[in-house]
Amino acid sequence: MKSMLMPRTSAWFLMAGLILLVSAGMALAQNLGGEEMWYFDSNLRVGHVATAELNGDGIPDVIAAEFNPDYYGDPSQVFGIDGKTGDTLWIYWLQDGARVMAIGDINGDGITDVAIGASYNASGTPDGYVHAINGIDGSEIWKYYIGASNNAIDVGDINGDAYMDVVVGSFDDQVHAINGQTGTALWVRNIGSLWINSVAIADVDGDLTGDVLYAHEYLAGYTNYMGVLDGVDGSDIWQLATNYVPLRTIVDDFDGDSQLDAIFGIEYNDETMAVQCRDALTGALKWEDTLASAMASTTKSTCLPMISMATAIPTCWSATVASATSTMCTTGPTLPSCTLPKPCPDMFAAPPSLM
Q1: Is residue 308 over pLDDT 80?
Q2: pLDDT value at position 45?
Q3: Which of 69, 130, 143, 276 has its Cβ near the most Cβ atoms within 10 Å?
Q4: Which residues contact 56 (CB under 8 A, 6 or more apart)?
Q5: Helices (H), the chain
Q6: What percent of the chain has pLDDT above 90?
Q7: What are the CA-CA distances from residue 44 to residues 64, 260, 273 (Å)?
Q8: 109 contacts 132 by C-beta, under 8 angstroms
Q9: Burial status of residue 194 (CB atoms within 10 A of its CB: 0-12, 13-18, 19 or more)
Q10: Are the beta carbons of 118 and 168 closer than 8 angstroms?
């Protein structure tokens, strides 16, 4: 049975299992009845959340990281939270906002640790570090200086020592591979562009060490890239120049042929969104599925935002989002007011009634 969870103080929320994140805190509700078990109040928007056993009581705990969406330069916190009681296990401070987060046993003690890629605000006290945080007590394992905002992160063994390493894509045009044991660089690869949108670690070439998939974006009018870097030294396994923007990547065996596939979410210049499946080892295209044309930002600001969870999905929120046009959003029927204000549809998001 699904429980109905409602935010206390904010319209922004994210469901992750039974965890409800709001911009000023978190609530955990039981599966049956929906009654609140505990509520954890944070100062800024909680933008990253994961669950892991931290305190040895056999109950999953919560790791959460916050940031100010209006100003990434504000100091922010990473929290370890007792999953049973909602009590604070530990707090780790960042000078700027927590931009990306991944988890894994970095120090090899059997407890999940946290890797945070912080933003970099040039004024004030800039951060720009990758922070490895001990999952037991929130202490610093190490921190690695990027000197730019970190935009993508993943954790996995890429040097074959059986310990988790950290890979980060940043706004300094580079992919950084960081030794999880020492916090020092294994290699740094310049993609020759502006920023890295996404990274993912998997053993693509079968050498028993993780390799690094990436999705990358340049300024308008320049070349974008997607590809896979050898985890040993950061050299190309393959790289493809594209006339579209690769936004996200994940990797797994999606067609059951015992070979890894790379999924890329992409956006064309006309704002058409699509998903590609490529052979992770060669980059050969297996299929592409066009999703829809994304609405321009001016349309998003005018699209009627109030959706009632109890009413039918209006045309603007149709499951066949390819038919959603700016005209439908701005001149369609007046929508009823509701409890949850919603932003205009994200092409990768489910309709409101399905969230």
Answers
A1: no
A2: 86
A3: 130
A4: none
A5: 297-302, 326-331
A6: 54
A7: 11, 38, 31
A8: no
A9: middle
A10: no
Specify the length of the chain in residues: 355
Question: For the chain, what is the total number of helices (H) and then of strands (E)?
Answer: 2, 24
CA 167 to CA 212: how far, in whole Å? 8
Token couple for 302: 């005018």
Tokens of 343: 């932003």
User: Is the dihedral angle over the CA atoms 178, 184, 186, 187 positive or is it negative?
Assistant: positive
The secondary structure of residue 11, as a DSSP letter, is S
Structure tokens at 201: 């670690």
**Side chain identity at residue 149, one-letter code:** S
Of the candidates 65, 66, 57, 80, which has an alpha carbon nearest to the alpha carbon of residue 136? 80
Whole-number Å distance between alpha carbons of 294 and 303: 13
What is the per-residue DSSP string for 259-271?
S-EEEEEEE-TT-
Q: How does pLDDT run across 126-169, given as a tens digit for each residue?
A: 888 999 999 999 999 999 999 888 999 999 999 999 999 999 99
Q: Give yes or no for a contact between 295 and 316, defined as CB atoms under 8 angstroms apart.
A: no
Integer Cα distance of 314 and 334 in angstroms? 10
Query: What are the tokens at 319?
Result: 């499951």
**How far, in Å, CA of 12 to CA of 84, rounded?**
24
Beta bridge partners of residue 50, listed in sequence order: 63
